[in-house]
Amino acid sequence: MSEEFRRFKRRTPDRRVEVYDTMTQELIGSVVNISEYGIMLLANTEVTVDAIYQCEVRFPPEYRFKSPFIIGIQEMWSEAVAAGGVTAAGYRIIDIERSDRARIVEWINESH
After folding, report:
1. Using the 8-state DSSP alphabet, how is residue 11 labeled?
2. Which residues are CB-neighbours of 15 under 8 A, at least 6 positions away?
3. Which of 24, 37, 98, 108 could bond to 11 as cystine, CB 3.0-4.6 Å?
């Protein structure tokens, strides 16, 4: 991944934020951190090199975001982090509605 993308401000959720594959409705994993252009997940499933997913980023009820972010992502890197198939994976956001990008930027920039 380009150094340029690693420099963007990121947000680490203070609660579990889950990411689901919109095609299968299966849980892909949970958000470790997110920037305007990328997302790092702890994946519960096998990560396929260069895989592309259409996803919903779903928030717990106590978050102010009531509707999910809809994003297209492409796998950039992955690394096994624990026994039992848990993998850390970095994805580039390749497709996103303007309104969802604005919500991500707003969330990243709000105070924790």
Report:
1. B
2. 60, 62, 63
3. 108
Strand ranges (E), 14-68: 18-21, 27-34, 38-43, 52-58
Over the chain (112 residues), the average pLDDT of each successive run of 10 is 62 94 94 95 87 94 88 94 85 96 90 56
Rg of the chain, C-alpha, whole Å: 13
Helix (H, G, I), strand (E, B) or coil at 101: helix
Q: What is the pTM of this model?
A: 0.87
Half-sphere exposure of 52 (CA within 13 A, CB side): 3
Token representation of residue 15: 């609660």
Q: Which candidate, 59, 75, 68, 65, places its Cα nearest to that of 106?
A: 65
